[in-house]
Amino acid sequence: xxxDDVRExxxxxxxxxxxxxxxxxxxxxxxxxxxxxPSHASGGAGEASSGPAAPxxxxxxxxxxxxxLGDCQRCGLAAGRKMIVFGQGSPRAELMxxxxxxxxxxxxxxLAFVGRAGKLLTDIIEKxxxxxxxxxxxxxxxxxxxxxxxxxxxxxxxACQPFLEAQIRAIRPKVIVALGKFSAxxxxxxxxxxxxxxxQLGEWEGIPAMPTYHPAYLLRNPRAKKDxxxxxxxxxxxxxxxxxx
Length: 245
Ligand code: URA
Known about the structure:
Blueprint: H1 3-22, H2 55-69, E1 88-89, E2 95-99, H3 104-109, H4 116-128, E3 137-140, H5 154-171, E4 175-179, H6 181-188, H7 194-197, E5 202-204, E6 207-212, H8 215-220, H9 225-239
Parallel strand pairs: 2-3, 2-4, 4-6
Antiparallel strand pairs: 1-3, 5-6
Helix pairs in contact: 2-5
Bound molecules: uracil (URA).
């Protein structure tokens, strides 16, 4: 990246953050009506300084973030994508999953985790965690499919980053689950291999973040499911939900 590119990148980020402030997403984090506390209070409309945004608020913020994203052309992936995969679920989600990038099925449908890996994620949520898929939030580090499902490039991750950050700040879940290496590295700001990182609870702006294996990896390595289950038990405890044996 040239110096000019870096300056333009920074200027674009500054413009973006200014627009987020305009639409009520506080910046820097903790400046406005949302503290960095991981606590997830009941979310009543009168609540202010910590925990999630009031329900309607989070929904409005997510809508504004989607509008801001528009027909995004901020990186080269725009040229090859069919649909932007914004992420979906409940704006009031206590639990948020962050994957890597949309694949072919997600690109077709504009929805995160709807292919084979998505079916396994649904089982993890519904059979394992005993939650409803529509009650959690599911998104990705990047919102457009890389060609031939290659790994996301650093400039693609950088271009998408402010949007994922704004989404997490809008929802303020009680717990985030990082699915796979790219998500874990992005959320926890580390390069430790996922095999060592998984199960090591970290945090993102005060929100507990659990790195674990990506469902696509589990499809190839079913024996690793027992490790994922250990990680999910910690997630259930953090959520204050019953932990099956
Ligand atoms: N893999 C991901 O990381 N995300 C999706 O949405 C689908 C597959």
